[in-house]
Design brief:
Layout: H1 15-29, E1 34-37, H2 52-80, E2 83-88, H3 101-121, E3 126-131
Parallel strand pairs: 1-2, 2-3
Helix pairs in contact: 1-2, 2-3
Length: 154
């Protein structure tokens, strides 16, 4: 069966809305065959200059966002005993580099979660893959003075 595409907006760093969006998707289509987690935020700066608030925002977008969405879709895949889950992550989930501590930490956490999930989902015939590309060029806003949110790469 072929379905018309439907655009559903989601801020992956807004953990509170993810379950509702997943319900909307499942109500619309009945199932998800392939879930590709490909959203990310990064920030560049020395550890001592990045606020804990920003560390948490990066962790929400890069770790809690993808796992919250995955956990919301997973019961449907398990009940059907089929599905594919893909995490598009980063080489920084394997190695850290200076001035990227919050980003690398969130990517390391995501790799750990999805590695464990892969082992757990084998019995349900659900494939879990993690892709860790090297450095890519992504959209960047130039920050205004004192505007740390604008220094985030999206």
């Amino acid at each position: 069966q072929t379905y018309a595409p439907k655009l559903i907006l989601l801020d992956i760093s807004d953990i509170n809305c993810i379950r509702d969006v997943a319900k909307e998707i499942l109500n619309c289509y009945g199932c998800v065959d392939i879930l590709i987690n490909n959203a990310s935020m990064k920030v560049k700066g020395a550890v001592q200059s990045i606020s804990l608030e920003l560390d948490k925002k990066i962790m929400d977008a890069n770790y809690f966002g993808p796992i919250t969405l995955t956990k919301a879709i997973l019961p449907n895949m398990i009940s059907r005993r089929t599905g594919q889950i893909v995490l598009i992550n980063s080489i920084q989930g394997k190695i850290g580099i200076p001035f990227r501590a919050a980003y690398a930490a969130s990517k390391h956490a995501a790799v750990g979660f999805f590695d464990c999930l892969r082992a757990e989902m084998e019995e349900f015939d659900i494939s879990v893959s993690t892709v860790n590309p090297t450095f890519i060029c992504s959209y960047h806003q130039q920050p205004a003075p004192g505007n740390w949110e604008a220094s985030i790469w999206k």
